[in-house]
Each structure stands twice: as C-alpha cells, then as structure tokens.
Amino acid sequence: MNKMIIKGGHRLSGNVTIGGAKNSTVALIPAAILADTPVQFDMVPNILDVHNLMVILESMNVSSDFADGILNVDPTTINESSLPSKAIKSLRASYYFMGALLGRFGRAKITFPGGDNIGPRPIDQHIKAFEAMGAKVENDGDEIIITTDEDGLHGAQIFLDVVSVGATINAILAAVKAKGSTVIRNAAKEPEIIDVVTFLNNMGAKIRGAGTDVIRIEGVESLRAKNTHIIIPDRIEAGTYLSMAAAYGDGVKIQNVIPEHLESFIAKLQEMGIDLQINEDSIYVPKTEELKNIEIKTMPYPGFATDLQQPITPLLLMAAGDSTIIDTIYPKRTKHISELKKMGAKIRYDEGNGTIIVSHTDALVGSKIEAGEIRAGASEMIAGLMAQGTTVIDNANNILRGYDNIIDKLTNLNAVVELVNDES
C-alpha cells in the first residue's frame, strides 16, 4: 500500500499531457480475448488497473506485455480457467470478462468484483442482456456462472431499464459473435463505448449506432486485428487537471484532449468565470482570481460526468457563496467529504435532498487523510496541492488505479509530491 505525500503551497504551471482513457482501456483489454489474432493497443495509461487486468489475462494463458504506452495481447492460446479472485476483486470493470468470455466460449464463471451477489443493481442489466441472448445465469456464493445450450448465444432485442455503460459494453461483447441480429435500446452514449466499438469494427465486427441510444449488431464468426488501436484521451483525467489548474494554477496547458467530450464540464468552468482557451486538442487554463458559485447535477453522457463531481469540488471551495452538487448517478459518492473537512473545507452533505453544499473556504490545512476510492482520492490530491503545509493521503493506490504516471505529471507542473510505500 502506498501513501501520497504532498507539500502544499507550490502553484502549478506548465504543460501536462493526458493519457489514454481508463474507462476505455478496462473494457478494451477484456474485449481483446474475442480476437482470433494478437492485438496491439497504443496510448494505454500506466495505471494499476491495467496491471491487474494483465494478471487476469495470464491466468487464461493469454500473454501480454506493456511498455511505453504500448500493450500487446495474444489471445490465440487462450484456455478456460479459474480467474484470480484477488485481481478480479481489485477492480470493478473486471465484470467485462463476463461478456467477453461468453462471446468467446459461450460460458463464463467469474467472481464478482468485491464479492457482490446478484442483486437489483449494479449488474441486473448485464444479466438481463445475457439472458435475452439465451444465456442461463446462476449465482453461487460470490461467483456468477453463465452458460448457454449447444446452440450458443443468439441475437435478441434488449431494452436496458437504466442507462448503463457497463451493461451496454457487456451486451456488445456478448453479441458481437452471437448468431443473428442484436438491438440494444436505451444504450449508453459515452465516448468510451464508441472507442470499444471502433476497435471491434476494425477487426471485422458489424456494429452500428455507437454514440446513440440504439446500437445494432450483426454477429460475425471471426474477429481479426489488422492494425494498432489507439485509445482515446481520458476525459476524466483531463477534467481533473482542468479543475486542478483552475484552482491552483498560474497558467497550465492540458494537452491531448478532445474538448467535445468535455462540453458539459467546460461549460461549468466557464460559468464560474474561467476564461479557457480551447484549441483542437488542448485547453489552456489561465490564472483566475475571482470565481462564481455554480450548481451541478450529474447526468449520463453528454451530461456532467459523475466521475468529475469530486475532482471539481476543491475548485468550488474557492468560489464566492455556496455551490451545490446533486449526483443522480451515484448519490452516495461522498467519501471525500469527511476527508476534506479534516483540511478545513466548508462542505456538507444534506441526506434529505441528496445535495452536497460546498461553501467558500479561505484556506485549507495539510492533514492526514485517506483516499476511499479513485475520484475521492483525486479530489483530496487537488486539495492537498492547495493546502498550507503537508498532506498525507493513505491508501493512495486508489489514485494510482485511475491516474496515469501521476507523480511525474504533477512534478512537471511544479508540485512537490512523492509516493511512499507504507510498511506499517
């Protein structure tokens, strides 16, 4: 386990380059086992989730190697085997192996991340999609066992009751080699879904409608990679650095971004009074002295991303008056609040109406806090940069799960930050 130690008071300046999208990568790696050839990805972020997924691949006799943003995956000698429970439980997105194994072998057995049983959520829509295509799904303790009869999966009409990125991608992975036509309605529209579909289509899949709420899939017999797939930039990482630069920067340029993927987030920064300079693939954030309070409501894409409500919170502490956040996707995404309070932040959660109220805070003080999950950790990291004194963030591995080469990138922006192995 690692600690992140941040010495606050060093204002940020310079350039930072955004890595490949985590939320694409964690779906693309399981999707690679559907290929009948070796696969290569470029712009792969150097995050813990990638290394954990490689451990899972190895358990299936799928070789992989990763260096300098290039990940090679060879699924041609894949074997069905028990997947490592520890690696599976370390990341939620390992559930994409359900759809990928089902698409490859017509069956799958997987420990659900965190040992969750099948309940009304979060994977009921995944299960609904698999069952519509002819799969039988059973729950044995914390294992999910999915099987098909001798005819395998078949095309189906699938209507998702809630907009779910995970269920949309899992349904695609299962359907891409299924016999016949599949239609997914009320599909999620995130750019990461388009990225996964682009990868599959370039190998010969027949998928239309990615980025809309209706996705149509004609099953194919074989998928063969013909080129390297370049992963799209991470819009959540970009939004995190935009918030960081606006909160404590003297002029920061964020490079390798797709501004169209951040329109709802950018709109809120501009509403606060930040004069962003938006270019084709970069955004410059000038030093801003006065900020206005705003209201945020998270929504499915293209609305304001739930993954960005925590990273924007330290910036809201600098605004005049009270800002409010309502997270309609994950209302309980509040693990950062108690930690920011330890630093002197004026922030509270009104359980009655599910609203986070962020009030103007003159100064933050370095403290010993804990990263409860990825985006909470990002919020605390930004607060640590802004604070007076030293902040120690325990369980910093949660930050490393989602942020590419974070120490190097912060150091290059003039931050004083280090990662220390916690031997205790």
- Note the gap between the termini: 9 Å
Mean of the pLDDT scores? Answer: 95
Q: Flag low-confidence runs.
A: 115-120
Helix content: 25-40%
Shape: globular
Structural class: alpha+beta
Report strand %. Answer: 15-25%
Largest sheet: 4 strands, mixed
Strand order of the largest sheet: 21-22-1-23
Annotation field: number of helices: 14
User: What is the CA-atom radius of gyration, in angstroms?
Assistant: 22 Å
Number of strand segments? 23
Structure description:
Helix 1 runs parallel beside helix 2, helix 1 packs parallel to helix 4 and helix 11 runs parallel beside helix 12. The protein is built from 14 helices and 23 strands. The protein is α+β, with helices and mostly antiparallel strands and 424 residues long. About 1% of the residues have low confidence. Strand 7 and strand 8 form a beta hairpin. A 4-stranded mixed beta sheet has the order 21-22-1-23, with helices on one face. It has a 4-stranded mixed beta sheet with strand order 2-14-16-15. It starts with a strand and ends with a strand.
Topology:
Blueprint: E1 2-7, E2 12-17, H1 22-31, E3 39-42, H2 48-59, E4 63-67, E5 70-74, H3 85-90, H4 96-105, E6 108-111, H5 124-132, E7 136-140, E8 143-147, E9 157-159, H6 165-175, E10 181-185, H7 191-202, E11 206-208, E12 214-218, E13 229-230, H8 235-248, E14 249-255, H9 263-271, E15 277-278, E16 282-285, E17 295-298, H10 313-316, E18 322-327, H11 335-342, E19 347-350, E20 355-359, E21 368-370, H12 374-386, E22 390-394, H13 397-400, H14 406-412, E23 416-421
Parallel strand pairs: 2-14, 3-13, 9-10, 17-18, 21-22
Antiparallel strand pairs: 1-22, 1-23, 3-5, 4-5, 6-8, 7-8, 10-12, 11-12, 14-16, 15-16, 18-20, 19-20
Helix pairs in contact: 1-2, 1-4, 1-7, 4-6, 5-6, 8-12, 11-12
